[in-house]
Amino acid sequence: MSSDQTPPAVEDVSTQEARMGEGVDDRFNSTLREAFGSTPFILTKFDKFMNWVRGSSMFMLQFGIACCSIEMIHTYAIKHDLDRFGAGVPRASPRQADVIIVPGTIVSKFAPRMKRVYDQMPEPKFVVSMGSCTISGGPFQEGYNVIKGAEEVIPVDIHVPGCPPRPEALVYGVAKLQERVANGESSPVTVKPYELEQFGDLERDELVDKLAAEIDEDDLVMRYNWNDSP
Amino acid sequence: MSIEKVPESDGEIGVTEDGLDYDALADLLGGHVIGRETHVNAEGFVIRPDEVQEVLSTLKTEAGFDHCSCVTAQEYDDRYESIYHLRKYDDPTQELSVVVPTTKDDPTSQSAARVYDTADWHEREAYDLVGINYDDHPDLRRILLPETWQGHPLSKDFNQDQPQIVTLRENANPLQGDHRSEDDPDTMFINIGPHHPATHGVLHVKTTLDGEQIADIDPDIGYLHRCEEQMCQQGTYRHQIMPYPDRWDYVSAGILNEWAYARAAEDLAEIEVPEYAQIIRTMSAEFCRIAAHMLALGTFALDVFGDFTAIFQYAFRDREVVQNILEDLTGQRLMFNYLRLGGVAWDLPEPREEFFEKIRDFLDELPHKLEEYHDLITGNEIFQMRCVDTGVLTPEMAKQYGATGPVARGSGVDYDLRRDDPYGYYDELDWNVVTEEGCDNFSRVLVRMREVEESARIIEQCVDLLEQWPEDEREIQANVPRTLRPDPDKEIYRAVEGAKGELGIYIRSDGTDKPARFKIRSPCFSNLQTLPEMSQGEYVPDMVASLGSLDIVLGEVDR
After folding, report:
1. Scanning every residue of chain B, which has its alpha carbon at the shortest distance from the alpha carbon of A73?
2. CA distance A39 to chain B (A)
3. CA-wise closest residue to B290 among B252, B243, B242
């Protein structure tokens, strides 16, 4: 299209005008746009459009915990390149991220911190849990210090099993999440949340009494009742 | 920090041509030795819990035991026990265990932290997990578990099902009290981690800044303490333990870790590994080392000049090649679970020629790739400005903190267990131990890059050997009983050279098919202790560079 514009004489125009050319900037034209022809309108539901957009450009949180994070890095890196699916830019700050991949074993000391990171992400947010540890504690399930799955702390949309899952499996998991987001399906499950709560709000029992001297009333705490774990 | 400032003696006491003469060492200590034990790797001297500092400093200054590689704590039915595994940097085959029993009612023992700086963290871990108190310890508090944890999980009466409460509270500035006025604070407290891109996982560094310089720094670990020792104590020797080592140092160093367990357990149960299997082990372990060093290089470049696009991706490209070869061999990309006690799981993949060709292709391309890395990284002026003369760790400090691996070798400490305490097939092959004298971040990176070349040399020789190996002598597995039950009260500490340094395993058997105590000596745990030493007075970016050059893996630090 630009070919049929005759370039104006050089001395008449400023550099800016020469660069911009006349009429609508044709760089925005695409094959898709041309397919619409003279009626550049589509009819869709706003929600559906928004969901499609959401699923097609997801910002992941740069969040590494354990072994699975090595395979997660491989998924971001060359060869597997998660970016091809519109979900590859890792953001260092939770405030800029839509999706958190939980790649590894969660232990008692880390769970409150992970919950805090999750809380800092803006809505709508999605969780992909990667590896057996985030499903059930995996090979470390019997450990005294291990949370029996990510769902005890935050709601999870997609589970990718494996120890660790191959990068292809993670790509599949993310693609499935995108599909669900695009279809507006979302059913995060929380099995039994360990919540962050103020120490003063805990039910008084032997343990709370014992720790009362060490912890302030308004300190945030997470209480683990291992017996209630699935 | 150590109280002993006496010039070191030649450390020749008890050294004979066929090993250590423990009687001479016992004479040196005189009446301090109240009993003798025999462990598989060394003799153990039993001493009184209130004479620890005296005995250890004598051994350090007069007998030359300058490396406290590990402190193992355990609970027996009638007593608690701390074992200090000592060896020498010059010759790690000269070992000595110092056994310190304490009573059940009052498990208090004198701290060795004033003799060996490295004992500081090791004793904190012993206090945390087993519950032994150390007198005169500079800072005895929990290290792996949260501060509000109830009970000591590796002690006998620990109830795993009791509820626990963990806090998420603001960290206080430890230098707050030093301020001249409350309203005009001249130090600033910054949390780096546990969720931070530069900490290589879930490390939390409590940093106090004075201006832009680091006034106080305290690495806070335990965010990935997933009870590896407990898991290993619950598994049977033959098959159930082997999958766990893969998950200690998970940066593709799986086979190196498996070897640490295999070596300790094989020596404990007196299993001879066939030569052919040893060559396969040696070859695959070196592949793991290359993969681990590649990741260290890529993430270091990412830390130092935020290079996510070029070097990081190049390093991962090369890791993919290595992982493909290892996948052909073991069937797994990351968690190989390939070694077995007495050998390996299976022979090389068929067709063998194709497999060898793949390896040779990789080896042929490697020199060119390394040249490219040198152009991009070590030859880069910005990189040099960031890394030369930052994060300085003197050889003396490295030894004090029990640093090993590339961290020690980057400070000129010539210590490599592959050569000094030979195992596998290393002593039959032609290769060199890499050391650099710079003691800074740059040297540590350089050591890793040069080690990749040496690993490639080892692999090449292994491939030659494997190619010519007669077909009917390809024995991959020794004859091992279905259930292993080593003799009761047999104790062993054995180490191999992992990707990050000396990876040691202590096992005590109690006559059953499961270990009574399984202790992991992780190189990263000791190496990380040097971080405050390296970054005091430096800028935050230099601290990040130092952390990157230490190349820690939190799975191994916390276990």
Report:
1. B316
2. 41
3. B252
Chosen for mutation from B154, B157, B168, B229 (greatest number of chain A CBs closer than 10 Å) is B168
* Nearest-neighbour CA in chain A from B351: distance (Å): 25
Q: What angle do CA B337, B343, B349 make, to 5 degrees?
A: 65
Report the predicted TM-score, pTM, of the whole model to 2 decimal places. Answer: 0.88
Q: Which of B135, B163, B198 is the last residue of a domain?
A: B135
Q: How many domains, chain A?
A: 2
Residue B129 and residue B240 in one domain: no
Distance CA(B364)–CA(B164), nearest Å, equals 55
**Beta carbons within 10 angstroms of residue B551's beta carbon:** 27
Inter-chain CB proximity B201 and A210 less than 8 Å: no
Residues A125 and A90 in one domain: yes
Domain CATH number, residue B280:
1.10.645.10
Which of A60, A67, A105 should we substitute to test contact with B (largest number of B Cβ atoms within 10 Å)?
A: A67
Domain range for A72 is 49-182
Q: What is the pLDDT of residue B10?
A: 58
Q: How far apart are CA A216 and CA B22, in angstroms?
A: 54
Residues A83 and A127 in one domain: yes
pLDDT at B519 over 70: yes
Domain boundary among B89, B116, B135: B135
Q: What is the pLDDT of residues B138-168, one digit of tens each?
A: 888 899 999 889 889 988 888 888 888 888 8
Residues of A in contact with B153 (CB under 8 A): 144-145
Q: Find residue B110's DSSP bridge partners.
A: B135
Within 8 A of A226 by CB-CB distance, chain B residues are: 160-164
A127-169 pLDDT per residue, tens: 999 999 999 888 998 889 999 888 888 888 899 999 889 999 9
Same domain, A176 and A75: yes
- The amino acid present at B199, given as its one-letter code, is T
Residues in contact with B243: Cβ distance below 8 Å, sequence separation at least 6, in sequence order: A139, B335, B337
A81 and A171 part of one domain: yes
Is the CB of residue A68 less than 8 Å from the CB of residue A167? no
Domain encompassing residue B308:
228-558
For residue B266, is it within any domain? yes
Q: Measured between alpha carbons, how far is B299 from B307 in angstroms, rounded to an integer?
A: 9
Are residues B24 and B125 located together in one domain of the fold? yes
Same structural domain, A84 and A131: yes
CB A137 within 8 A of CB A107: no
